[in-house]
Predict the structure.
Amino acid sequence: MTYCVGLLLNEGMVLLSDTRTNAGLDNIAIYRKMFHFENPGERVISIVTAGSLSVTQTTLMRLREAIEAPDATEETSIMLAPTMLKMASIIGSTLSAVRMEIDEKLSMMRQGASASMIVAAQRKGGPMRLFLIYPEGNFIEATEDTPFLQIGEHKYGKPILDRVVKPSTSLEDAEKAVLLSMDSTLRSNLSVGMPLDLAVIEKDDLRVSRQRRIEAGDEKFREMSEAWSKALRDGFTQIQV
């Protein structure tokens, strides 16, 4: 399983993903789930993934293949798509096609495969966009009313986002919010695990502005986790019933 989250704010976009994959208790591995496609100054597209590794890896390989194809067009390449809506449509169609192909192969064993993606993107002259792509290829978009999207084991990390995140939230506070959201998930679900990948895309930067890999044992993350636990305990003791 996994947990990924994306925020759409006035100042930019923030993405966070874990890296744990598992196929049973004795088959746990680390795979990157965050991927970036950039043409600095023209467009940036970042994707985080959850679900079947075979589906997500095949989908990403096909997206890259379409970008690098000599006959790439606005209809086939996310780096040439004239709008970010068209870009999301290309990703959705590719994901849906891959899922159906793999599902068909697994159907004889009465198994299935599924995956979803969060896509953060902006092109020159256009607004920042944050999409959640469903396994069927359809998608929704983050709005001012709901400025964050989650995939995977999202229930443990959702409360702090509901209470804290607004479009006006600063990028610094947003990083803190997604990391504490992940910390809550790590504590409650063993299928989500370190290391973590964090990325920040500042508004109109048209590139990934900052990236950070947070390894197990990271001192700053540990200190933040302990401070959050203490703040919750202190707040709990102060509440009168």
Notes: Residues 84-106 form the longest helix (23 residues).
